[in-house]
């Protein structure tokens, strides 16, 4: 693009002569017939050089020069004063002292005009290049400071324009940018691994806690406890433990309507339905069987998520689901005698346990109000559950107290409450940190922990067929789960342009 | 040929070079000279009436520059003297001398017209 030159002269003929001469040299020309108009035009559309007449009415060339040099945006534009040198030397000297780059005689030869304009423009371009170089060095230095502080994202370093330079500074910027992106990528990978590890540890902890519930519940059932009374007391202990903990940590606060509504639904789901189902089922079905059936949680989360179109129902996942169902069928064949209708009924009720777990995973991942403290929310939820189970017991005329309680039963009730509280808080953490699909992987851990706890606490044993069933279920879970669980950790990685690195 | 002697042909040729050697552009510029210069004489008379010698000097300076561009040496000479005098104070016989400038301008215009139309610059 041609350089733009502004001609400032009050006399039309003189202005036309200068404009025509400058145009003939291949430059673009703007004109102004007085000083103030020239300054306004320059502020709107800066030019590369100015040809300025000195003798003008209102605002003469000296005043225009002074105004330009006082304006930081305009002070670098070279000004060539136009003067009848032979009888106006003093004016030329004064103009140069005021910052004019050069002078041009009124009766100039076009060769002189070309030489003076070219020289002034060359100096200006050099100054522009130098200023841009300094600005780019500053940009690179700022980017280095960001990197040094450890708080950066490659796209926020803003050195793309420096990296586009073809000189050594550009090369330095490209190397710097490439290294910054590499560091960022590694950092992101590390954080992702830490999150995955944290999620996995949490999942194991959830499994260990929930896995304990089935054998403990069966032990409680064997001591003739009433499911409803058990639920009231377990919820009461959970509420006391969690609210005390949140009070000690200074997190206790009066819940707002949004939190109350959330805890009400969560309480009905977990504190009432889940607990009662577990207590009722374990009174009739072996704890190991319940633990194995809990693996259905993984398939149920998938089924619910697929029904709600949160997950894709691929062929691989459908095969996984088939494996899971085959595993469940094997469990039933291997562990329970299927002669009586009662057994079928209780197995069906047992399936509601993983179903309720699955609904809880999805509910927690999608409905949790922002900024809620997990333990505090669990305390509120358990309080609501306690009240509901109490009201139900009173309305049904069922005993509220655990009758004939022994030290053993009291210990079991307390342990159930602790395991429930721990399991609830941990699943809440997993579901909110890692999402419902990842959280449902706790089913693996719950099943294995449940079997181990059942063997340790109840002397229950697993036949080879049952182990085979477990293997079937694990295989099924593998097909349904791991692919989508990693999606929970997906980050948008910045695109790295390696093509420029070698240039 | 006699009227051409009022014009400095070197100056006029320099002006033609500044116009890129385009005769049509030089003629356009001459039209502008013919049109824009007389208002300067009006300005000089008004300034003399008001004893505004700075305004008088500026108008004389501009007229001098335009005259030099077109090689109107006589006109430029009178303007230069007027500019010089106005810079230090009142100009003696201001109205008569402005009339002299006008006469020199008219003579220069006549000579320039015949030069530009007659191809005397070649």
Specify the oligomeric state. Answer: heterodimer
Tell me roughly what share of residues is in helical segments of chain A. Answer: 55-70%
Q: In percent terms, what proportion of residues of chain A is strand?
A: under 5%
Mean pLDDT across every amino acid position of chain A: 80
CATH C-level name of chain B: Mainly Alpha
Number of strands of chain B: 0
As a whole number of angstroms, the C-alpha radius of gyration of chain B is 15 Å
SSE topology string of chain B: HHHHHH
Q: Give a short account of the largest sheet of chain B.
A: none
Low-pLDDT runs of chain A: 482-503
Biggest beta-sheet profile of chain A: 5 strands, parallel
Q: What is the C-alpha radius of gyration of chain A, as a whole number of Å?
A: 40 Å
What class, by secondary structure content of chain A? Answer: mainly alpha
The run of helices and strands of chain A is EHEHEHEHEHHHHHHHHHHHHHHH
- Mean pLDDT of chain B comes to 89
Strand portion of chain B:
under 5%
Shape of chain B: elongated
Number of helices of chain B: 6
> From the 3D coordinates, which CATH architecture of chain B would you assign?
Up-down Bundle
Number of domains of chain B: 1
